[in-house]
């Protein structure tokens, strides 16, 4: 069933645009609150946000909606998405909410919801909440003493920092490491530098001066050039770039070269296999992960389980099939021994532990395999369904035939932006360029 408000990662759109308004946020608070009000205790919801100016507006509207249906609200302030998931469990909340548009520009925003166990909502639950949003909520309104209260939780930041630090293997600290940390002017600008410094690292921080408008702007995991330049400037051992809500991470080695999520997962998989921590006989990744990763894991006797794009689908497969390592090429790394969603800081700590234990440079540790030539293009469209057009369908079929069994072609509509992603990969880079170009041209003609 088509969803009206929710996409692949919650509700997202231009703040005060056609989709994401204070009115909708109010209704989401009322509808989600009504769905999760249960038992005779004081029901509570925790709400975190990143550093976008519109977060104040959405935070207030959500709080009004939740208190209206009888939930007590705990505002966490700027806080990474994985911290909200963890605190939902830690504070025994009935629901968790993160206000963020992740890696999108500052004028977008979004709403992500977490169950009491810290996991994102299922498609079915989101559909039920959508139905409530469009219904008459009068009967769900609390009266008198049952109306909820709002609080500011000043201790939440410390809780998350201590939690993250405890994920480092026993006996390992980060003393002697020079680390450049790029917080993307986003949600982790306070917690991540403190955690790394308290663990003993020498930390050089950039992207930690948010002004409400500069989140993800020329910094963070979508602009790794900034952290790469700083790594070379200060001669750091490693660069760590988080995104706006800190649920994903990109690494830069000591030479300033980018290490993507595929290489990252390969390092963790091999390290955890050697430590007899790896479950499921492999890892989970999406259809976008490089074929080189799959071949590398196969040589180690490990499998690669692929899912559709979206960390929620990676996590669903991990839980269903018993894996404890999964993620996306874009840097969402899920380590279910520690987290219920991608956590850029916790994932980075696991890599830093490997770095300390192996005493080798990142450029050596994080080059586990040679990538198969891969090309990704994004094609914007204004309306309609270009992927259902006969011309595009034929171009995709022709492209798949050209690549044959030794290559892959993935064409999909983004769940968060009005663009279509075209990804091709094969051992022949020229062939990949041709195939992707032909599909891209076909989409542009009808879009």
UniProtKB/TrEMBL annotation:
<dbReference type="InterPro" id="IPR006352">
    <property type="entry name" value="GlmM_bact"/>
</dbReference>
<dbReference type="InterPro" id="IPR005841">
    <property type="entry name" value="Alpha-D-phosphohexomutase_SF"/>
</dbReference>
<protein>
    <recommendedName>
        <fullName>Phosphoglucosamine mutase</fullName>
        <ecNumber>5.4.2.10</ecNumber>
    </recommendedName>
</protein>
<dbReference type="InterPro" id="IPR005845">
    <property type="entry name" value="A-D-PHexomutase_a/b/a-II"/>
</dbReference>
<feature type="domain" description="Alpha-D-phosphohexomutase alpha/beta/alpha">
    <location>
        <begin position="3"/>
        <end position="137"/>
    </location>
</feature>
<feature type="active site" description="Phosphoserine intermediate">
    <location>
        <position position="102"/>
    </location>
</feature>
<dbReference type="GO" id="GO:0009252">
    <property type="term" value="P:peptidoglycan biosynthetic process"/>
</dbReference>
<dbReference type="GO" id="GO:0006048">
    <property type="term" value="P:UDP-N-acetylglucosamine biosynthetic process"/>
</dbReference>
<feature type="modified residue" description="Phosphoserine">
    <location>
        <position position="102"/>
    </location>
</feature>
<dbReference type="Pfam" id="PF00408">
    <property type="entry name" value="PGM_PMM_IV"/>
</dbReference>
<dbReference type="InterPro" id="IPR005846">
    <property type="entry name" value="A-D-PHexomutase_a/b/a-III"/>
</dbReference>
<keyword id="KW-0597">Phosphoprotein</keyword>
<dbReference type="InterPro" id="IPR005844">
    <property type="entry name" value="A-D-PHexomutase_a/b/a-I"/>
</dbReference>
<dbReference type="GO" id="GO:0005975">
    <property type="term" value="P:carbohydrate metabolic process"/>
</dbReference>
<dbReference type="InterPro" id="IPR036900">
    <property type="entry name" value="A-D-PHexomutase_C_sf"/>
</dbReference>
<dbReference type="Pfam" id="PF02878">
    <property type="entry name" value="PGM_PMM_I"/>
</dbReference>
<dbReference type="GO" id="GO:0004615">
    <property type="term" value="F:phosphomannomutase activity"/>
</dbReference>
<feature type="domain" description="Alpha-D-phosphohexomutase alpha/beta/alpha">
    <location>
        <begin position="160"/>
        <end position="256"/>
    </location>
</feature>
<feature type="domain" description="Alpha-D-phosphohexomutase C-terminal">
    <location>
        <begin position="382"/>
        <end position="440"/>
    </location>
</feature>
<dbReference type="InterPro" id="IPR005843">
    <property type="entry name" value="A-D-PHexomutase_C"/>
</dbReference>
<dbReference type="GO" id="GO:0008966">
    <property type="term" value="F:phosphoglucosamine mutase activity"/>
</dbReference>
<feature type="binding site">
    <location>
        <position position="243"/>
    </location>
    <ligand>
        <name>Mg(2+)</name>
    </ligand>
</feature>
<dbReference type="InterPro" id="IPR016066">
    <property type="entry name" value="A-D-PHexomutase_CS"/>
</dbReference>
<keyword id="KW-0413">Isomerase</keyword>
<dbReference type="InterPro" id="IPR050060">
    <property type="entry name" value="Phosphoglucosamine_mutase"/>
</dbReference>
<comment type="function">
    <text>Catalyzes the conversion of glucosamine-6-phosphate to glucosamine-1-phosphate.</text>
</comment>
<dbReference type="GO" id="GO:0000287">
    <property type="term" value="F:magnesium ion binding"/>
</dbReference>
<comment type="similarity">
    <text>Belongs to the phosphohexose mutase family.</text>
</comment>
<feature type="binding site">
    <location>
        <position position="245"/>
    </location>
    <ligand>
        <name>Mg(2+)</name>
    </ligand>
</feature>
<keyword id="KW-0479">Metal-binding</keyword>
<dbReference type="InterPro" id="IPR016055">
    <property type="entry name" value="A-D-PHexomutase_a/b/a-I/II/III"/>
</dbReference>
<feature type="domain" description="Alpha-D-phosphohexomutase alpha/beta/alpha">
    <location>
        <begin position="260"/>
        <end position="370"/>
    </location>
</feature>
<dbReference type="Pfam" id="PF02880">
    <property type="entry name" value="PGM_PMM_III"/>
</dbReference>
<keyword id="KW-0460">Magnesium</keyword>
<dbReference type="Pfam" id="PF02879">
    <property type="entry name" value="PGM_PMM_II"/>
</dbReference>
<dbReference type="GO" id="GO:0005829">
    <property type="term" value="C:cytosol"/>
</dbReference>
<feature type="binding site" description="via phosphate group">
    <location>
        <position position="102"/>
    </location>
    <ligand>
        <name>Mg(2+)</name>
    </ligand>
</feature>
<feature type="binding site">
    <location>
        <position position="247"/>
    </location>
    <ligand>
        <name>Mg(2+)</name>
    </ligand>
</feature>
